[in-house]
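Worked Example 4.2. Consider the chain below.
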Amino acid sequence: MSDRRLAAVEKSISDIQPTDVRVALTGTIVASGNNRALLDDGTGQIMITADVEVGQIVRVVGRVIPSEAGIELSTEFVQPLPGLDLEFFKKVSDMWRLEHVQTRSV
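Applying the procedure from the previous section yields the following structure tokens:
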């Protein structure tokens, strides 16, 4: 049996499904405390396990964990992205996803 992890799939919070295993998210920390934080990517919010500061823009990779409140993320790592233009990043990501979906359907 291999010890390799599944690749993290880049997603928007609103696109996360309970059946997803490992995801990568990019957004802004809007609340934080007690090694937990609330990440907002403009499509939704998700609780993550991380010691980060409110206002930070970050990329988070972790495992999807169903909870009573919905879905949370058991964080494997947090990558701070100071200076990232989040609106521009979202536009480029949306264009890439659209192109990727169109290419797959051809």
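Helices lie at 86-105. Residues 9-105 form a domain with the OB fold (Dihydrolipoamide Acetyltransferase, E2P) fold (CATH 2.40.50.140). Compare this with Example 4.1 before moving on.
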